[in-house]
Amino acid sequence: MTDNIVSIEDITVVFDGFKAVNGLSLNVRHNELRVVIGPNGAGKTTLLDIICGKTKPRQGRVMFKGTDLTRLEEHQIVRLGVARKFQTPSVYEDLSVRENFEVSLPEGRSVWGSLLFRRDATVAKRIAEVASWVFLDSVLRTKAKHLSHGQKQWLEIGMMLIQDPALLLLDEPVAGMSHKEREQTAELLKRIARGKSIVVIEHDMEFVRSIAHTVTVMHQGSVLCEGSIDEVQRNQRVIEVYLGA
Ligand code: ADP
């Protein structure tokens, strides 16, 4: 039995002859909050795309809870418990917060499913619980288009949580958030990571310091180094990459 929820084994991704990811290996443990940093073009987004099945590697494999994901379709990987959030929030603007949660329920994917489950008390309880986790319990009836940018980011995290995934992949979740919203998001991610694993791409080092268990630094499609935030910030090769030396 392994401690890892995800093992990325010697992955290479090639776009038009260019190796965007080059022999990358990475393990993420159960209940770990892993932050991935690195300069633009390092391959961070491609890494998340590989795990969720959006991008297929030329070489290597991705193991998730003992299952080889490498050849599976995106929708199959979602069903196994991997949820992905992109940088720009993607919510249903004309639906209320509650309705956004309802359509995100695994049962709510069909119109009939959503009508049936809307009246289910356990679903109502689940929505209330998730709404309170993501600080949206007071705006359940508000249409998503009237939420602040930060609230939309939270709504999307809530829409992931309602599906009860084992692994959340987040691409810059605090981009565009106020200082206070960043602090709340840090608390939220730490709370989520008590029962789930998270891989988050982030640039804001203050935020990284407030959440990271382990930081992975990527450069030119590979892992440059891994360790605590202090360890990676002291690493001479990391300093050189960030200073462009
Ligand atoms: P990061 O997220 O670290 O900024 P990306 O994973 O987005 O890096 O990109 C890694 C490299 O792969 C970059 O040089 C980028 O231009 C290239 N790349 C990413 N996606 C594609 C694509 N669909 N087609 C061609 N090149 C791509």
TrEMBL record:
UniProt entry keywords in alphabetical sequence: ATP-binding, Cell membrane, Membrane, Nucleotide-binding, Transport
Superkingdom of origin: Bacteria
InterPro entries, per the entry: AAA+_ATPase, ABC_AA/LPS_Transport, ABC_transporter-like_ATP-bd, ABC_transptr_urea_ATP-bd_UrtD, BCA_ABC_TP_C, P-loop_NTPase
Claim: Transmembrane helix is one of the keywords in the record: no
Pfam families tied to this protein: ABC_tran, BCA_ABC_TP_C
Ranges for domain ABC transporter: 6-245
Tagged with keyword Transport: yes
Gene Ontology MF: a single term: ATP binding
UniProt name for this protein: Urea ABC transporter ATP-binding protein UrtD
Gene source species: Mesopusillimonas faecipullorum
Encoding gene per record: urtD
